[in-house]
Amino acid sequence: MHVKVISTDQVLLDTLRISLDVLLGCEFETFNQISPELEQQLLLAGSESILLVDAGIPGVDYWALVGWLGRQFKGQVIILTSPNSYNLSAAKMMRLGCYAVLDKNKGFAPCWSAIISAAQGDTFIEGDSPFAQLSSSDQELARELLIYDVNQLSEMKGISQQAINKKKLAIYNKLSICSVPNDKAFRVLAKLFQYH
User: Fold this and answer.
1) CA distances, 195 to each of 73, 92, 127, 138 (Å)
2) Can you identify the CATH homologous superfamily of domain 2-120?
3) pLDDT over threshold 80, residue 142
4) CATH 1.10.10 spans which residues of the chain?
5) What is the pLDDT of residues 31-47, one digit of tens each?
6) pTM of the model as a whole
7) 67 φ, ψ (degrees, to nearest 5)
8) Residue 38 near residue 46, CB atoms below 8 Å
9) Which of 25, 89, 156, 195 fits a disulfide with 190 by CB distance 3.0 to 4.6 angstroms?
10) Bond prior to 181 in cis (omega within 30° of 0)
């Protein structure tokens, strides 16, 4: 998976860079303007590419941009709106080919969910926590992993550390955590979604 972001918001760029590096370990490129070089890269990008576009860049005709991306870009487009990006109807943007249109003031969690859904080829449903897809026993173990280490859980449950680690890795796979160290990414993801 390759993520490109077009934004002039340095805080947004830094947050995305750190979070995506910690949680996914994916390739990440940032751009602060739309240039002929970027257009060429977008034309050549594959279907595994994800493009996040900040709708707060002054002077950009977003209707024309989204229309062009819908025709020329093979990957998924996620538009990040803010209160000052008036006149951008999410429904119309999605009809033109956007994968998701998100309010960037809602924080990183919806953005993370949209990126993961796009990477997996799923339909994006805003507000879904990745923890909601876990079974009740997996959710219980996930909560316990946030509190106890593997040794403590092994003693408490009376099963081997290897069995706990196997279940833990299965949960990480279900949550699409593929970075190293994945324990740290798990804790960051839990914090992002206020899961405890």
Assistant:
1) 35, 33, 13, 13
2) Response regulator (3.40.50.2300)
3) yes
4) 130-192
5) 888 889 999 999 999 88
6) 0.67
7) -60, -45
8) no
9) 195
10) yes
